[in-house]
Write a structure and sequence with these properties.
6-stranded antiparallel barrel; Lyase, Ornithine Decarboxylase, Chain A, domain 1; TIM Barrel; single chain; 2 domains; elongated
Amino acid sequence: MPRPILCTIHPQAIRHNLERVRSAAKDANLLCVTKANAYGHGIEHAFEGMRAADGFAVVDLEEAQRLRRLDWRGPILLIEGVFELRDLELCSRLGLWHVVHCDEQIDWLAAHKTQVPHRVFLKMNSGMNRLGFTPERFRSAYARLNALPQVEEISFITHFSDADGPRGIDHQVSVFEQMTQDLPGERSVCNSAATMRFAGNGKLRNDWVRPGIVLYGSSPDYPQRTAQDWGLQPGMTLSSKIIGTQNLQAGDTVGYGSTFTADGPMQVGVVACGYADGYPRHCGTGTPVLVNGVRTRLLGRVSMDMVTVDLTAIPDAGMGSEVVLWGRSPVTGVELSIDEVAAAAGTLGYELMCAIAPRVPVVSDEAPLRK
């Protein structure tokens, strides 16, 4: 039989999370962010939970092509824009929207031969200091774009650096609004955290929100608020089984480096999951795990193919018992937030979702919808 590790995607949960976003941003359209293969969930799997979206946002053309092959005919935005002139040919053919964040991209548009003018999103660097025109150069970039016959419609976009933290978004909003207030065109300013925390306050003009991590069931501002606080459901479950057990006595150690020492009799379970599967190596003793729907803890170091867990308080657990590394138990329905596991590894849920290794089978618990 195959090794008993499995990544299960839950389109119904993604669908639920999308509706939570709609309730937070009632007057906005939703551009569901499906970059990085839908944050590791697989575009084809995640799409089943996002059919009610108003559009999608991706990073590269291959992701856009996959969405078109799924018969999505609505908006698709390239959120980093194009990377060379010839990319614009595919934008014309697929009807893609794209961000413009630098002079070179305007030059490429001016040289692009197309009979179908493009819709572009002009990006302002309002304080993130990654991509975008500075506020001082924003209007000159707008004037250049507005003069091009290759451009049909110009919208405006920026990205918040602190929407999930105490600094908030006011310092960037003020700059963005000052430079765009008298320009015609739709706006897109809110990522997941800004959408959930600020989009419903009535102060933001926000024609298109860009939810990402929140769609997949991770809190956009953990640990201030948990996924449960936001009413989110996990879009992914990483599960396995117990493949061996050991009975320890006081003084026995577990795993490489002997980083865990038993202080009395205990039972240990060995789980078919390790860092070669994408489970974070930096998780250590105390990281939460579910066995038969009961919360327990990791013991010792994560190995390439195995982790060890404490079974002492779960007497019915043994060979073949269900283990949930994060997500929702299909047997008991008990959930373990990916954010908790990520925090134990000193990282974010984003990284865990995107790090599932190719050797892990990925399935959906919902059959694809038929047209």
